[in-house]
Structures are given as C-alpha cells and as structure tokens.
UniProtKB/TrEMBL annotation, chains A, B:
It comes from the Bacteria. This is MarR family transcriptional regulator. SUPFAM superfamilies: Winged helix' DNA-binding domain. GO terms for molecular function: DNA binding; DNA-binding transcription factor activity. Keywords: DNA-binding, Transcription, Transcription regulation. InterPro entries: HTH_MarR-typ, MarR/SlyA-like, Tscrpt_reg_MarR-type_CS, WH-like_DNA-bd_sf, WH_DNA-bd_sf. GO terms for biological process: response to stress. The lineage of its organism: Bacteria, Pseudomonadati, Bacteroidota, Cytophagia, Cytophagales. The keyword Amino-acid biosynthesis does not apply. Residues 16-149 form the HTH marR-type domain. The keyword Membrane does not apply. It comes from Pontibacter diazotrophicus.
Length: 149, 149
DNA sequence: GTACATTATTTGTATATACAAGTATATGGG
DNA sequence: CCCATATACTTGTATATACAAATAATGTAC
C-alpha cells in the first residue's frame, strides 16, 4: 500500500519529504511486527539485541560501552537493560579486574537457550518481511547507507 | 557508512536481516536529526504531525479518529497529544454537536504561525537528508511501500 | 423503548526513553 | 605523588509509550 494511502495524504511537497514520512511510517509498521513477536518470547527487541551481541563475542565478555556501540538502538540505557536481563537469568555481570570502571557481561546457559528459541521462531517473523526480492533488499539497504551519509 | 560498520557487525546471515537492522538503525539516526530540530521549535515530532494534519483540513475541524488515521506514528495517544497542544495554545477542542462522542479539533492562529515557523526552518533540516538523488528517494519510497505489502 | 453491541474518546498503570547530573576509577602532566 | 581531566557506568527525573480497562454516546434488533 502506498504511503499516501496509509496516512491519507494526497501528495507530498517533494520526494524527499515523501521518503521521510515513509521511513517513519515503515519503522512504526516494523515495530508492530517485531514487538509482539519478541513479547511472546518474553523479551524486548533491545534485550534480544544485547543477547545477540553477547553471543557474537562468546566466550569473551562484553563491556557496557561495547554493547552500546553495537546496538541498533543507540539510546538504550544499557545499565537498566542489563538489570532486566540479570533478573531473567540470561546474563551475568562482573567488575572487570584489569579496569575496575568496566563491567563484564556474559551470556548464561539459559540466555543462550532463549536465543536459540528465538532463532527457531525467526522464520515465522521473516515470512512477513519477504515482500522484497534479495536484490531489492540489498538495494534498499545500500541506499539507506547512502542516505545517512 | 555501511550498516556493518555502524554497529560493528562483520556480516549478516542474509540480506533481509541486513535490511531489517538497517531500517531500525536508520530510524534511530533519523530521530536523532529530527528530535533536536523540533525541540528547538518547542514541539515534538508527533505534535508537529498533528498540527500539519489540522492545517491540511482547514477550515474544517478534524476529530481524534481521523487524526489517529492520518498520523505517521499510529501509537500516539491523541487525547494526551491534544492536551499538550491546547496547553500551548495551538489548537482548540469542542464537542461535535452532531455526534457528541466526537471531538472537533481546530488549529488556532498561533498554531498556524508555529507551523509557518517550522516551514521556514525546514531547509536547514532537509539539508541533512539530501544525500539521495530525487530518483533514489522515489525508488526507496516505492520499495518501502512494497516491503509492507 | 429497552437491551446489547459498536464507536469514540479517556484514564490508569507499568514500562521505556531522553537527558542531565552524579559517582567511581583511571590516566597523564607537573 | 597530586591534581585535573577523561573514561565508564549509574542514578534521578520528567516525559512518552504500550496496552488494557473504563466511560459515554450512538446505532440496532426486537
């Protein structure tokens, strides 16, 4: 469905404004797909992002700063995100002995299993996101890179 | 900058996952550009969206449901958004006399002037968003429409 | 015209976010 | 070694969001 029809706007002043509205609208649409998916699995999108980052560095621990820099959403408060994940038993935190300002975060066995459970359900989610061909997905991704400069 | 470098991820499992990460990351980047712009003008992105919708329907009033349906961000709580805009003196609300469940929202003179002030500042904002050519902007927009199905 | 469903908006509440200020540790110059 | 500055994380707070339940007016079947 065209963005004009989605938000009932006859036309846009120019194509860049149309793109801006479309990006914001599409992000909202995306979140409507993603949030219930992760909620059913007992995670938020950001919590899953942190777990995936930790798995990517296994068996090394990852400190808060590195987590922040690798997150898709840069505005997450890592301290409070990790608090939630500790509550759920998916990660551990320890003060780094070589630099006591830093916190070492590690994935636990249950955290790893939760990630695997998410993986098993991914096909269900991605079925909704395959309206573009592989070539189109590559094209959009490259143009988004270009948009950000 | 490529999304791989932005979030320090060597590679993605497939191009659709790369696109997903890129869309979410780009939206965050966009918000980092938009939020301070609107904040300087004393508005939020959603408040501005509502004002623009009201201007589009002038001189007719718009009810909450229609505002909701035309908003880029569908999850906004229109009641509380309008409360804020009334506080600022940019809109009025009246009970619709033909259907007393509905609320008629109208732009005020100060609301219109605020919109004009935003318009005057738009070129400053859009300068950051012109890394794509017009053709590329059209292309991405059309592919986003296709992505949503 | 009364009961029941539907529509339109409001409110409550738990959680999340943005942003600024605070604390603790480390580093480097004199 | 001492002090200023930088780094890494934490906390406070005001505002925003998601989501469910509540209210209130209207429409509809009988």
């Amino acid at each position: 469905m065209r963005i004009e029809d989605e938000i009932h706007q006859k036309n846009f002043k120019d194509d860049h404004r149309r793109l801006l509205a479309n990006l914001l609208f599409t992000n909202n649409w995306l979140n409507q797909q993603l949030m219930p998916f992760f909620k059913d699995l007992g995670l938020t999108l950001q919590q899953h992002n942190v777990l995936a980052i930790l798995r990517g560095q296994q068996p090394d621990p990852v400190c808060f700063g590195d987590i922040q820099n690798r997150m898709v959403d840069r505005n997450s408060n890592v301290t409070r995100l990790i608090d939630k994940l500790i509550e759920k038993g998916y990660v551990t935190r320890d003060i780094c002995q070589t630099n006591r300002r830093m916190i070492e975060v590690r994935l636990t066995e249950p955290g790893l299993r939760k990630l695997q459970q998410v993986d098993e359900n991914f096909p269900k989610l991605f079925a909704k996101l395959h309206n573009l061909t592989q070539e189109e997905a590559i094209l959009v991704s490259n143009l988004l890179d270009k948009l950000r400069g």
